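Budget justification note: compute hours in this period were largely spent on complex prediction jobs such as the one shown. Inputs:
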Amino acid sequence: MVDWSVVTATTPTTNLTHAECAARAQTVSVQSYRVELDLARAADPDVDSYGSTTTIAFTSSGPETWVDLIADRVLGATLNGEPVDVSTYDGARLPVTGLAPDNELVVRAECAYSRTGEGLHRFTDPVDGATYLYTHFEPTDARRVFANFEQPDLKGAFTFVVTAPADWEIVSGQPEASRTTDGSGALATVTFAPTPPLSTYITAVAAGPYRRFGDTWSVRRADGSAQEIELGVLCRASMVEHFDHEALLEVTRQGLDFFDAAFGYPYPWGKYDQVFVPEYNIGAMENPGLVTFTEQYLPRGKATRPHLMGRASTILHEMAHMWFGDLVTMRWWDGLWLKESFADLMGWHVAAEATEFTDAWTRFASDRKTFAYRQDQLPTTHPVVARVDDLEAARQNFDGITYAKGASALKQLMAYVGQEAFFAGARRYFADHAFGNTEFEDLLAALEGASGRDLSGWAGAWLELAGISELEPFPERGADGVLTRLVIRHTAVELSSGERIDRPHRLVVGLYELVDDRLVRTARIEQDVVGEMTEVPEAAGHRADLVLLNDDDLTYAKVHLDPHSAAVVRDHLASIESPLTRGLLWSIAWNSLRDGNLPPREFLRALPQVLAEQDASIVATALGTAAQAVEVYAPAEQRDELRAHLVATARSGLAQAPAGSDLQKVWAQALIGATATCADGVPDLRGLLDGSRVPEGLDVDDDLRWSARRALAAQDAIALVDLDAALADDDTMTGRTFYLRAVASRPGAAARRQTWERATTDESVTNDQLRALVAGFAEPAGAAAAAEYAEAYFASLTGWWESRSMTMATILVNGLFPRADLAEGALRRPVEHPVVVAGKEWLAAHEEAPAALRRLVVDHVDLALRALVAQQSARLAAAEEGSQG
Ligand SMILES: [Zn+2]
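Corresponding output:
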């Protein structure tokens, strides 16, 4: 027995490389896993580990290999009945030698309960003291729970055997096959049915007193076949009153109807459970038969339609993975985009086609794509088809390119080959590769076969070259406003070489005319854009107060407006009938602002258009954008005026919103958000909390109350004893997290010092607690103080990376990056700003730092620089305006 508890999780061998995994797959082939987990004492907080015994049946053509395992201790191992020397275990890998052609390896270990959301997470509910467990493994944290070959192309049939309290829900990806109880009846040992061939990262177990709501889905197909699936949705017992299980199950059934028909391959995983879990790091995870979701999807209070739409899209995204990702899996992490782009596209497509959220594409255009545009303009952007040499790089690629740009490219592909051919290609792909692993070429071949088109040129320009296309219109108008000519300039540059990319775009040009103060589309011209300059002959002769490229959002590109159109949009955006077009125009304004072409003050002059907007989703997006415009892109001396303007606008929006509407809730959230940086809203928030200023119909639920207290805390306008009292009234996980965030949001040097210390040194804080701490610390009201921590930040980076898990280190690196504001009257250029200089110096001095850490720092330095440049041009614009006025 060897005690390896002193080995941290970041021994050098934790970072698996592509090359060594590819070599392992050449010699090893897995038949089955039997994973026995002893969770009998999980409810005892003094017990911090559990027993894990894994039996792996595999063949080998070579004499040796290794298995992956991050355990507190390896208790022992045998290979084909003979003891294995476990003294060579290094905390991440157990070497295995003396392999036969057919092998049975048994590894017994003690593994730690996780508090970071990685591996087997354990959570104790403050409401009732109940213990909840769930696993999260992507990309490579199954090895924190059991010994395995941690790479997606070594699939095996998994049999999970879990011992836990008998009165708990004990679930895995497959149905329960058998159950025994111990003599007292207190403990149950559940053996689950073996899975079909599966990759390690999508295996799953959950256990605890979860509440389960069941249903069935069934289908009788035209070919006479039929299928019935048990459905379940689960949540913590203390969340049941907020659990709208009927709505969740309805979207689930709608999705299964759609995918069953569209994919032509029966749902392959037996049953379909969806469990909502606490302290979850991401939105959701596609474990076949047991999908895990964040509890953020279960608001305490009335959910708005934008919220429900986002949730439906996520449910459908994960469901698409049952086929795309789970049934057919990427060979290595460079194929991550294969599953994520496709699932992301399906999430929005099926929401629009098969649920009540028929306007889902508006959200995709105004919200989801923004994520991609932002990422695609960072120095570290990469092609959708990315090269991923190792695991750390893989983890950093769960990003806007892999998800949103990839989905946008596939959306353009769907327009290019047609929907029918697109789904025919998908059907062929599933039929050809079920339970196997694939690469990009396999999908391309299926799509080419189904569409009869050569897609290599398209794929090269869209998927294999990084960077964003820019589209700019050059309209020539006669004296009467009628177009005499319209030319589109297309710019796209390959970032590494600086060479022009000829990326083909199929897009729509929308021409709009002002009629009775409303912008009305009078022409819709479909246009192929190839090469640098494209003439749009059909546009001539139309009156066009607004020329909008990529109307209807078929393509992915940064679009510009000509000055005349921009001025018209500023005053009439809300009068356009199509919400998709309005969403696009807000997205264009946002890109322009980030480029320093649209000063924040000018952006805020369009706020009356938000007041006139009736789509709650667009209002929420536009207001979020406005807040960032002020806090990040406006020069410091303009902020107070702009903040006051935001508070006043939010107050008006709240006053005029219909009682009980989503708009009312969105405006209330905006007023709360704006008050965090402007004291004008303090009386409003106090009135919300004490009931003296609550607009009719507004449900001031627990979550909204905490948001208000957090904003007041940022203004130093609520006493600590009042926060304590509020916590005593709402001592739930959500209440505790909000409380922590509120306390961390307080300005003042002592409070900030306390927050910094706790976030950076207290390793007992959980993932959610750490997120709350750093979010509070980054509150703009205390930003001036935060700059004092710049030195400590850069000095701490490598230490955090070495001593914390990837999730926790990433929260610290992202959340605590110092703000960069241009000092008033400073002559210094943005590149000479101390934060930018410190960041560049750190990068120069840490060439050998892990690539994933360097990537985060490179991006933050670039974002800081972008903000400083925008601040500077806004200051120049103000000076110009002042001199003209
Ligand atoms: Zn996904």
